[in-house]
Amino acid sequence: MSDSSQMAELLAALSEQQRTMAALITSLSQNSLREAPTAKASVPSFPPFDRTKETWDVYFARLGQHFEAHRVVSDNRKRAFLLSWVGSDTFELLQKLFAGEEIANVPYDSLVAKLREYWKTSVHVMAARCLFYRQCLQPGQTYAEWVANLRGIGKDCQFLCPDEKCGKSYLDCLIRDVIVTNTPDEQVRLAAAKSFFGAGYRDCRSSRDRYESHGDNQTAPT
């Protein structure tokens, strides 16, 4: 084989090697770009726990779904997210419940179990009822938000019929009573007082809707 033929073959081999390397580099770059968003993806924040709006069990169940949706599996990550999201009040409560321990080192399951035990045993019914009856329409708050807040607090009040054969909740009737007593709107008060909560609240709401359609405030005055 002549020198020129050998040179041609060598150049062809080098050219093929360059094409192979270029294809490999392109493939690696594309894989890196596809994987980058996943590697850098952050878990969206979760709202703090507010016992006036939901129970701890409900909050914990929603948090579990949030973890599942964003593939948070490690207990260490769950603990870190829980402590950063749960809110300052609950964070301080955990510090008291685990006095003498660094809560950043307490297992995730222990944190959750301690909070569940606390909320089940320490909610004082009379204190919850006092808080319930004192609730007024706040500046900027809608009637729907007010009712939702009352319903959340009412979960701790044990407003149940004392008759063992009944045992049904009369929370709705008491929500109506609080609206009648504490609303700043006299016409809403009269509408709510006309009948029991079922019809009365619908009358109250329709009355309020009429005022809103004429330009009256949709929320409590600020």
TrEMBL record:
**Domain of life according to the entry:** Eukaryota
Q: What is this protein called?
A: Retrotransposon gag domain-containing protein
